[in-house]
Amino acid sequence: SLQFRIRKKDGSYLPVESSATNLLHEPAVKAIVLNSRDISERIEGEATLKASEARFKSLVSNASDVVSMLDANGVVLYESPAIERILGHKPEELVGKPAIEKIWPDDVPYIAEILEKVLKTPGMGPTVRYRVKHKDGGYIVAESTATNLLNDPSVKAIVVNSRDVSERVKAEEELKRSEARFKSLVLNATDMITLIDANG
């Protein structure tokens, strides 16, 4: 089949798709039959889809969080560019490898259990924290949410959104230590400490 534009009576052009059938050998016909149809709606739909895909790709590519796509076996199908900023790996270095390879060994059983639960239940799973190896040998603390979209024909993957929460975790740990110090000071004070509200 061929696609081309034909000029309409009003001077505008209409995209059509045509296929030709040679019936010159048929005595009753002795002609080449050309079947054509208007494909303007399909062309418009394809253009809209391309624009939507480009928008989505731009959003994912420029997101501060990492977007990963895994198959049912936990093998990486896609990593967004943010992975390089967070873990030091280029996306192509991780595609085709089990995602669990990046996870700190002590956290592997926990994450394997979560992944198994996600596989059994379509939709969004729990938000989890775990340690992930950086390319330089250190580790970061990641916070991730996995969504099972394996049954969605347009995705066919587990989509994982992850962010680096190492600084937040450090701040939380420092706050706990500070509170523990304050509590210890209060409990071991020789003077009596009384808290009084605004009403006395």
Describe the structure.
It contains 5 helices and 8 strands. It starts with a strand and ends in a 13-residue tail after the last helix. Helix content is 34%, strand content 32%. Strand 4 and strand 5 form a beta hairpin. Strands 5-4-8-7-6 form a 5-stranded antiparallel β-sheet, with helices on both faces. A 3-stranded antiparallel β-sheet has the order 1-2-3, covered by helices on one side. The protein is α+β, with helices and mostly antiparallel strands and 200 residues long.
Layout of helices and strands:
Layout: E1 2-7, E2 13-23, E3 31-38, H1 40-61, E4 66-70, E5 76-79, H2 82-87, H3 91-94, H4 108-120, E6 123-133, E7 139-149, E8 157-164, H5 166-187
Antiparallel strand pairs: 1-2, 2-3, 4-5, 4-8, 6-7, 7-8
Offer a concise description of the structure.
The protein is of the alpha+beta class and 200 residues long.
